[in-house]
């Protein structure tokens, strides 16, 4: 859409006579309040900013498509994953987690990897990260965790003491912290990183048979990372480096692509697997549950307008299509509430009707009114249900698959606490050079911590994951690990 060589108007469409001079009494006289155009411009300007996302504020987006390579209908009735060759339009938003809207792209931080599939059955949002795991495994700890990632309420500075105090007192974070402090903590570009759904989800096929599923997006460019030195230089010289790289690549037709794979776990195996498969701080061994290729995601169109499409995009893990359902993962359960709540606050009650969020299929329901109801608001159609006027009706075939629940209702922890094996496995998978870089990143990150007990507690956690890992960190921090732990 272009407004080239058009008449300038107010937002009410009335033609503007003069956009250079305010209306005053004589050239030196006071400005007249009747200068409606002046007042409208200043007042709208004051209201241009909507609240940034409370996490994942800095991001970049692109349009593209998802194409099915292998039909998944044996596992799920979700049409987006059925029929080889089928293409579904998508919109993706990549992001950092902790930084504000104007912060640098090339920081050590997980990256958001949020995909909106505009499927023929409504939108499906797969809102993941570039890491298959997360720092915590209960939503109740998320606000506290993010507080430590943001600015100290007194100094307004980042606070490594808070970061490591929380992490060292939350050993479930060890696996993701090891991942973050390793080479993948700073991707070379958004195009050279993988994406993961992270959580375990449920797929249900047309016969009502369910399986557990984990998603993996593997970049076709291969994973490439950025060194601390290059990252620090770019953070100063070009803080929007990843944003610019993505835009320019698509602009010149160098379309980035990812293959989507899934891991499938038969429903009953969740009860006997050697750890809680709904614990998002853990990965499922690919030996136990090998990757199955599903399709290919290609990004081939830049946004026309950043605010309209990227800033106003609203993703929620609760936006699922028939055949995709939640698992009991406590983090996923918490997110199902939190995201739409965040959207109602940040963008507005009718955020789903905005062009970037609107499904490509009809929306027929009885929700009415609310701020910025810029569509027909249902016109004169029936506005309640049940009704005798042929209004939209439910169809039981789309009910969620019933599942057994049991247990005493209480605030209860996970029943397994092995926070160390997989963190240690990850460290032992690294080659010698990456081990050294990871240890150096952890030591440098912990050096400004003001309390020795925090450093010691953190070093002991790493030691429990792998003795060599903990020893090297303790040495770098000039700490002696207590004999009794060895
Ligand atoms: Fe988020 N997260 N999150 N998160 N998250 C948000 O939604 C939240 C978590 C992720 O590009 C917020 O619109 C809770 C895991 C991405 O617009 C908010 C918990 C994973 C994005 C929110 C988590 C993510 C967000 C902030 C703990 C990876 C950006 C503004 C249960 C699997 C999406 C907003 C975009 C954004 C809540 C943890 C990824 C506040 C409560 C785990 C990619 O709703």
From TrEMBL:
Keywords annotated in UniProt: Heme, Hydrogen peroxide, Iron, Metal-binding, Oxidoreductase, Peroxidase
Q: What region holds the Catalase core domain?
A: 9-393
Any one Gene Ontology MF annotation carried by this entry is: catalase activity
Pfam hit, one: Catalase-rel
**Recorded superkingdom:** Bacteria
Taxonomic classification, please? Bacteria, Bacillati, Bacillota, Bacilli, Bacillales
Q: Do you know which InterPro entries this protein is assigned to?
A: Catalase, Catalase_3, Catalase_AS, Catalase_clade1/3, Catalase_core, Catalase_haem_BS, Catalase_immune_responsive, Catalase_sf
Gene expressing this chain = katA
Q: Name the chain's protein.
A: Catalase
Give me the Gene Ontology terms describing cellular component: cytoplasm
Family matches, as PROSITE patterns: CATALASE_1, CATALASE_2, CATALASE_3
Look up the EC number in the record and give it.
Answer: 1.11.1.6
What family is this? Belongs to the catalase family.
The scientific name of the source species is Neobacillus massiliamazoniensis
Chain intervals for the UniProt region annotation (Disordered): 1-27
Q: Which reaction does it catalyse?
A: 2 H2O2 = O2 + 2 H2O
């Amino acid at each position: 859409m272009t407004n080239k060589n058009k008449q300038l108007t107010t937002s009410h469409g009335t033609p503007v006579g003069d956009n250079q001079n305010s209306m005053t009494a004589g050239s030196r006289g006071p400005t007249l309040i009747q200068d409606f155009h002046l007042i409208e411009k200043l007042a709208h300007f004051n209201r241009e900013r909507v609240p940034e996302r409370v996490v994942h504020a800095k991001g970049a987006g692109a349009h593209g498509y998802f194409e099915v390579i292998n039909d998944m209908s044996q596992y799920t009735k979700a049409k987006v994953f059925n029929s080889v060759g089928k293409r579904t339009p998508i919109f993706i938003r990549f992001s950092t987690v902790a930084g504000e809207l104007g912060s640098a792209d090339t920081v050590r931080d997980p990256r958001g990897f949020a995909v909106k599939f505009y499927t023929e059955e409504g939108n499906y949002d797969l809102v993941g990260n570039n890491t298959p795991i997360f720092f915590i495994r209960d939503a109740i700890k998320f606000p506290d965790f993010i507080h430590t990632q943001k600015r100290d309420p007194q100094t307004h500075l980042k606070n490594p003491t808070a970061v490591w105090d929380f992490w060292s007192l939350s050993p479930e974070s060890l696996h993701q912290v090891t991942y973050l402090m390793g080479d993948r903590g700073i991707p070379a570009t958004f195009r050279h990183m993988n994406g993961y759904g992270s959580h375990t989800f449920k797929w249900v096929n047309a016969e009502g048979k369910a399986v557990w599923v984990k998603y993996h997006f593997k970049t076709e460019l291969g994973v490439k990372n950025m060194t601390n030195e290059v990252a620090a230089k770019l953070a100063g010289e070009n803080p929007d480096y990843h944003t610019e790289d993505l835009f320019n690549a698509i602009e010149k037709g160098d379309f980035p692509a990812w293959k989507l794979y899934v891991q499938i776990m038969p429903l009953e195996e969740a009860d006997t697997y050697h750890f809680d498969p709904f614990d998002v701080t853990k990965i499922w061994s690919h030996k136990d549950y090998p990757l199955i290729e599903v399709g290919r995601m290609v990004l081939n169109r830049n946004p026309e307008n950043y605010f309209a499409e990227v800033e106003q995009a609203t993703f929620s893990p609760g936006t699922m299509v028939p055949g995709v359902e939640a698992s009991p993962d406590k983090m996923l359960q918490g997110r199902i509430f939190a995201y739409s709540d965040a959207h109602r606050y940040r963008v507005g009650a009718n955020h789903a009707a905005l062009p970037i969020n609107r499904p490509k299929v009809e929306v027929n329901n009885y929700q009415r009114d609310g701020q910025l109801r810029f569509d027909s608001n249902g016109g004169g159609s029936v506005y309640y249900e049940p009704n005798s006027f042929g209004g939209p009706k439910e169809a039981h075939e789309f009910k969620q698959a019933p599942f057994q629940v049991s247990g005493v209702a209480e605030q209860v922890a996970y029943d397994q606490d092995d926070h160390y094996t997989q963190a240690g496995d990850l460290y032992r998978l690294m080659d010698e050079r990456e081990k050294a870089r990871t240890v150096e990143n952890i030591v440098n990150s912990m050096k400004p911590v003001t309390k020795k007990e925090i450093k010691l507690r953190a070093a002991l956690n790493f030691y429990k994951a792998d003795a060599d890992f903990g020893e090297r960190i303790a040495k770098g921090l000039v700490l002696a690990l207590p004999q009794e732990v060895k």
